[in-house]
Structures are given as C-alpha cells and as structure tokens.
C-alpha cells in the first residue's frame, strides 16, 4: 500500500462527501470508499508502516477533483470513471443523431 496515495484519496473523498452539491448516491459511494481507505491506512500504520509523507512536511498541492485523483492513483493511461460515463453519454447522443439522420421521416417541423 502507498500511504501517500491513500491519504490523497482520503482527502478527495472527504471533500466530495462534505460538498453540499454532491448527490446522495455519490455521497454514499464515496463515503464507503472513504471508510475503506481510512481502514487501509489504519491497518498499515498499526502494522508499523511509515506514515504518509504529507504528515512529515509542509502541505503541498493535493488533487482537487476525482479526475486528478484518478490520474494520481492510476499512472497508466486508464479513463477515469466520470470520463467513461461522459463518453458513453456522448456515444448515446451520437447514436440518436445517426438514427434521426437515417430516418428523416421521423422528424416533424
């Protein structure tokens, strides 16, 4: 386990859970992820693991969004969940547009 990545994830999940504009389902999901990361970090430290480096030096820039967090915790090119959903939604709209173009009789002015 990387305590630095885990702490960064915890901090982002806390922001999401405490943000008033977050939906209840997103808040619940991120709350579960937050609890899992806190438990992982607790187990790591309880077994003698070293603390996150942020706890030993002045604070540095932390990820502000889930996409930034995803980039930090997944260094290989891998789409973030939000980006994947956006692509799926866009693909769905493009499919509807193609169908409307293929069946112009369905359009009524």
Keywords:
109 residues; mainly alpha; 2 domains; 4 helices
Task: Note down, in words, how this protein is organized.
There is one protein chain. This protein has 109 residues and is an all-alpha fold. The chain has two domains: 3-77, no CATH class; 79-109. The chain contains four helices and no strands. The chain starts with a helix and ends in a 7-residue tail after the last helix.
Task: Indicate the structural class.
Answer: mainly alpha
Instruction: For the record, give the distance between the C-alpha atoms at the N and C termini, rounded to a whole number.
Output: 60 Å
**Which range best describes the helical content: under 10%, 10-25%, 25-40%, 40-55%, 55-70% or over 70%?**
55-70%
Ranges where pLDDT stays below 50 over 5 or more residues in a row are none
Number of H- or I-type helical stretches:
4
CA gyration radius, whole angstroms? 20 Å
The string of secondary-structure elements, in order, is HHHH
Structural shape: elongated
Percent strand equals under 5%
Overall pLDDT? 78
How can the largest sheet be summarized?
none
Count structural domains: 2
How many individual β-strands?
0
